[in-house]
Hints:
two-component regulatory system; kinase; histidine kinase; two-stranded antiparallel sheet; single chain; 6 helices
Amino acid sequence: MDKALLLAAVGAILAAAAVMAHDRLRLSRILGEMDRMLDQAMNGSFIERDFDESRLSAVETKLAHYLTASAVSARNLSSEKDKIKSMISDISHQTKTPIANILLYAQLLSEQELTSEGRDCVKALTTQAEKLRFLIDALVKVSRLETGILALRPISAPVLPTVERTVAQAAPKAQAKGIELKLQPFEDTACFDPKWTAEALYNLLDNAVKYTAAGGTVTVRLTSYPLFCRVDVADTGMGIREEELPKVFGRFYRSPAVSGHEGTGLGLYLARQIAQGQGGYIKAASTLGKGSVFSLFLPREP
């Protein structure tokens, strides 16, 4: 009897071992097939080849359907991007000439002998045409960045030369308004696109000058951190209410407090898009009635 029990136990152990070996082989085959399918999916050579009623075949069929749908979506997205690119190009091209002509005729009119009312009309015409040109240019830039048509190309470079050029660009407007524009230089390097970073920084400077009263100060300073280079644009302007700070980077957002100033509500939005597009970000801090600080953070590494 003991011998029979022993034989039964050995048989059960062998049977269990056989079942386990079979399951391991089956699992290994399934994992191997899954690995093959994923490799083919990643390199674009996936072909559905098993047509049976197994669960592996069902997974393979679902993966094939998913990849087919993804490929169709990718083609549709590419087509839509091409359409948007063409539309943006058309808008930019078709509006440049009429606006340039309006400004040219306005200039020619201003050189004629006009009544006081006529000169005011010409001045208003010129101002509105310039505003329209700025708005269209800003919309085109934003659209190109959002759709990926226009790619940022960050490079490792010194930050100060770009900051100095941008400050020099904003200096005439600050001087005309009687605002002191100061730069506190600091040698540092970061990874950024010089052209588009200058665009973002100029938008911050332009806002600072615009919303600072005559006799005020706008200060640009650089601070070095282990992971970022920070460029601060600090002003002594009207400041921003705390509840409005999260909104100022929204597209077309303009505070009711600045409704009397010119602007489109795109400058800060565009600046943020540029910063984020190269791995950086922008922060804002403000005290109502005392001024604001907008900080542009540029990454040190790509």
